[in-house]
Design goal:
The complex is a heterodimer of chains A (about 120) and B (about 110).
Chain A: E1 5-7, E2 10-13, E3 19-24, E4 31-37, E5 44-50, E6 53-56, E7 65-68, E8 75-79, E9 88-95, E10 105-106, E11 110-114
Parallel strand pairs in A: 2-11
Antiparallel strand pairs in A: 1-3, 3-8, 4-5, 4-9, 5-6, 7-8, 9-10, 9-11
Chain B: E1 3-6, E2 11-14, E3 19-26, E4 32-38, E5 45-51, E6 56-59, E7 62-67, E8 72-77, E9 86-93, E10 99-101, E11 105-110
Parallel strand pairs in B: 2-11
Antiparallel strand pairs in B: 1-3, 3-8, 4-5, 4-9, 6-7, 7-8, 9-10, 9-11
The chains are: A mainly beta (about 120), B mainly beta (about 110).
Chain lengths: ~120, ~110
Amino acid sequence: GAGVSQSPRYKVAKRGQDVALRCDPISGHVSLFWYQQALGQGPEFLTYFQNEAQLDKSGLPSDRFFAERPEGSVSTLKIQRTQQEDSAVYLCASSLGGQEYNEQFFGPGTRLTVL
Amino acid sequence: SQKIEQNSEALNIQEGKTATLTCNYTNYSPAYLQWYRQDPGRGPVFLLLIRENEKEKRKERLKVTFDTTLKQSLFHITASQPADSATYLCALGTGGFKTIFGAGTRLFVKA
């Protein structure tokens, strides 16, 4: 079956613009994660959803970052008033159950460049 | 402060040899540890998970050890192949849903 998909794959924004990044998890997966990955670094946790509930948003770097998963499937990460330090790859991952031990399946990421 | 350290320098080995990658952590008490593989331009791919009460886990040519006293995990690839060339990430599960990743180690396997 299809894996996790993300769109767009690449996004260029001017500083101050708002962007929306989409994640389509594997069908039926309960858990959904967002990560930010800077060049040469590992993914850094942003937020976690179990179905439509956002259970952990401790990694969101500022109130300019907002994530939602209103129907418990597709998720959107929104960044308002983008800044150059927001440039990174944004990864989405999903896992089958709500248990922390579950294997995470990652999408290919969205590369965001803020000019 | 809390840290996860992986070899920042790339590891170069000859095909057929065993590659050993290290993951050290400080000021964490992980419930489990995972290893992922990441190729350029792609998302990480899960390889193995080992829990705090397990010492060793194997899967085909892969072996992971977990020493909670030393606060270290070792990841071994036996009979390495050029196709094993990638970045390998270790990740700690700390008891919530937050997974903490290391920066990764690049592995190059030469034919």
